[in-house]
Amino acid sequence: MLTENNIKPSNNFEVMNIDRNKCDIYFYNDIQKIEKDTGNEEKETAYKYNLYVLKDANYRPDIEKDIAENYDKWLNRAIYYEKHNTEEAKNEREWRNSELDETDRWLTLSDYPGRPAEYTDAEIEKYRKALRNYPQDADFPYGTRPKLSH
Q: What percent of the chain is modeled with pLDDT above 90?
């Protein structure tokens, strides 16, 4: 999530909220210094960056060392977590699952009411494959939904 703050993060990650072997890890990525007009001929320094939070990670005493040594892996995990645990992602997965359920009926029962007669089984299978792959799309859950087509 794009964030702006007057305080520059001192590190590219922080381990916080340690409780009963769980913790939250905050990642500060792509930190940029910006100058903002205050309206009275002065400029204010602020910092813009992407903030990703990995919640309820398993805490251990050497976790900070592990994150520092494997930063990209941990950052990608946090990005994936945030991307796939939004309300939008939940809604898109529900839509995708209902489409898979419906098209499953079309393939198993050729005379199923509501099956679009203009599509072949191969076209429906291709659509189902696109539905199964949809959550792995780079722009999921904000991208274009798969469509049944000829």
A: 67
